Give the backbone structure.
Amino acid sequence: MSMLDPNRPHPARDLDADDRRTYATAVASLAFADEKLHDAEVDRLGLLMEALGIDAGEHDGLVEAARGAGAEAQAAWLGRWRDTDVATALLEDSIVLAFSDQELDARESAHIARIASTLGVDPGRAMLVARHVLVESQDERTRGEPTNPKLVAELGDDLAHSEPPKPGPLQRLLTRLRG
C-alpha cells in the first residue's frame, strides 16, 4: 500500500531491507524540519513503515536516526535514489508526512524543495506531485474546488528555490484548503 492509496503497492516495497529502512529514515527526517514531532507524523511514519514491510519495533530507532541526521546524511540517503523511479515516491511520501499534522512550516517547505532538488526531480514534476498530494489529502468539504493557478505557479517556484526558508505557497495552499 502507498501512503495515499492503500490499494496500491508501495514503490519502495521491493527494495532490500536496509534500503527500505534508509528510505523511511530519509522521509522521517522531514518531520524534524520544524523541530517538532507531531503525533500525526508519528502515525504516518508507522503507516509508511507498514507499507514498506518494516517491523514496528524499529520505529523508535528509525525516528532517532532521522532526528540526529545532519544535512550531509540526508543528502547521502536521498542521493541513493537520485533520478530513479523511487525518487518520486520518496518526494510524495515526504509531502504526505509534511501535511499529516495539518500544518506546513516554512522550514518544511524548504526541506521539501531540497529533497526534490537532491533527488533530481525537476520543479515542474515536484509541483505536480505536491498538487497530487494536496488533492488526495483534501477532505470531502473541499474536494473539487479549483486550485488558484497563481498559487500553483508560486508553489513550483518555492520548490525550485528553497533558500532562504520562508512561508511558502505550500503552506498557504494547505491553509486555504483546510478552510
